[in-house]
Specification:
The structure is a single chain. This protein has 223 residues and is an alpha/beta fold. It folds into 2 domains: 122 residues, Rossmann fold (3-Layer(aba) Sandwich); 93 residues, Arc Repressor Mutant, subunit A, CATH 1.10.10. It has 8 helices and 14 strands. The strands form 4 sheets. Strands 2-1-3-6-7 form a 5-stranded parallel sheet, with helices on both faces. α6 packs across α7 and α6 packs across α8. The longest helix is centred in the middle third of the chain and has 14 residues. The protein is elongated.
């Protein structure tokens, strides 16, 4: 399912757009302030961001700049009240990929979303996240609550496999098979325990990473 972060302070507009996009198969998270949007994005990086220009705690282009400083390829569509050329230029300068002028037809917004997703399909799976942990697959980097964390290759591969299976319990046997055996590294069960402990310590014991006793592990969103 495609995840959207929709930054909009008008609850009526937000609810209408959310319901419409939900019918199209999108999972939409609405944020009523820029501060809430930052918190939401740090916890879970979506596929695309819909960003209103005028928010109660600031302008949308400031949030767009903040997004670009962390996730350079994350698609962003600005929603502006009017076709003000200065606002549009400022939006593109801040890193937006497209804009839609309010009031808009829902079908028009939907078509613009699809068009942008087609243009950015190569980066759609670049960012994986869970509980404030974000993996940038193209750069092979990991951040936790906005801070980049240095993991070893095996720790990175272990975390990547767990996040790719977010919401599902994966057995220790399956992890050993996918992370170690696939690389030609035949190890005993204790190696996984040690690697998991080191990774958890580096990530400050994340609450989103659960141990399923006598079975394996599961990552799940906590927000």
């Amino acid at each position: 399912m495609i995840e959207l972060c929709y930054v909009e302070d008008n609850p009526d507009i937000a609810d209408t757009v959310k319901q419409y996009l939900a019918q199209k198969g999108f999972c939409v998270t609405v944020c009523a302030t820029l501060a809430q949007a930052r918190q939401t994005l740090q916890a879970n990086v979506p596929t695309l961001v819909l960003l209103d220009w005028n928010m109660p705690d600031g302008r949308g282009d400031r949030l767009c700049q903040w997004i670009r400083s962390r996730w350079k390829e994350l698609p962003v569509i600005f929603l502006t009240v009017r076709g003000d050329s200065a606002d549009i230029v400022s939006g593109f300068k801040s890193g937006a990929d497209d804009y839609v002028v309010k009031p808009f037809e829902l079908e028009v917004l939907y078509s613009r979303i699809l068009a942008l997703l087609r243009r950015t399909r190569d980066t759609a799976g670049q960012y994986l996240s869970c509980g404030g942990i974000v993996i940038d697959r193209s750069r092979m980097t990991v951040s936790c609550q906005g801070e980049e964390i240095g993991l070893s290759i095996l720790e990175y591969q272990l975390l990547l496999y767990l996040i790719q299976n977010k919401g599902r319990t994966v057995t220790r046997e399956k992890i050993l098979e996918q992370v170690w055996d696939m690389n030609g590294n035949y190890v005993n069960d204790n190696t996984l325990t040690v690697t998991m402990k080191r990774m958890r310590d580096k990530l400050s014991q994340p609450a989103c990473l659960k141990t399923v006793r006598s079975v394996g592990y599961r990552m799940e969103d906590t927000i």
